[in-house]
Specification:
Layout lengths: L19 E4 L2 E4 H5 L3 E6 L6 H12 L1 H6 L2 E7 L3 H15 L7 E3 L4 H5 L14 E6 L5 E7 L7 H17 L13 E2 L6 H9 L3 E4 L2 E4 L2
Parallel strand pairs: 3-4, 4-5
Antiparallel strand pairs: 1-2, 3-6, 6-7, 8-10, 9-10
Length: 215
């Protein structure tokens, strides 16, 4: 009989599932770690693997940039805490890069299952490359999934976080390929009066429902 793995996936807008875990920086409760800051929770398939090493190094070398955006990092794989510590040490010795953020030891797949990181069609004992961006209220705001053999794009993860924070702060939306400093999209009018006011505004008007402004 084919083994069936229950693999629920939390959705955008859901409360991030809470958990307690052992990490390379000690035990933590996720809801406490998340309190008051954004969090990027990301999984990788295994320690001592080439693509994962490039990705973890990418997060580490841009850690200050995330901190400056009030965002904490936390990684995960289905490996032991001893394997994690050995890998951290190995990469630091060979490249000088320290993975200076918690990495969850998830041998029993408890956290990976909560976050739908196990995709049986891809692997039953390794997490795919999932990214969850979670806001300071503990709400999942963005989800990315990559397969085992394709590394993530760090620039896009940073851009997505900046976009979410910009949208929240200014109550706007962001167009295709938006980058910080570019114009944003204002919400469309919801009445005829508002439509007429919009047409008198100094916004960049593609049409009454698609208008851009600087912030």
């Amino acid at each position: 009989m084919e083994e069936h793995i229950e693999n629920p996936m939390p959705r955008i807008g859901d409360k991030a599932p809470d958990f307690k875990a052992t990490t390379t920086y000690g035990d933590l409760v996720f809801s406490e770690y998340n309190k008051g800051s954004w969090v990027i929770l990301f999984s990788h398939p295994a320690d001592f693997t080439p693509v994962c090493t490039t990705e973890m190094s990418g997060f580490a070398t841009r850690h200050k940039e995330f901190k400056d955006m009030n965002c904490k990092l936390i990684g995960l794989s289905i490996d032991s805490i001893h394997a994690h510590v050995a890998w951290v040490n190995n990469v630091k010795k060979n490249t000088g890069v320290l993975f200076d953020f918690p990495i969850i030891a998830d041998l029993d797949m408890h956290v990976a299952m909560k976050y739908g990181m196990i995709m049986p069609g891809e692997a039953t004992t390794a997490a795919v490359r999932a990214v969850f961006i979670i806001d300071p209220n503990g709400i999942i705001r963005l989800i990315m999934y990559y397969p085992l053999n394709v590394g993530r794009n760090m620039d896009e993860i940073v851009r997505a976080l900046k976009a979410l924070q910009t949208a929240d702060k200014h109550k706007v939306a962001l167009p295709l390929n938006w980058q910080p400093g570019e114009k944003v999209i204002v919400p469309p009018p919801t009445s005829v009066d508002a439509m007429e006011e919009r047409e008198k505004s100094d916004y960049e008007m593609v049409d009454f429902y698609l208008a851009k402004k600087n912030i």
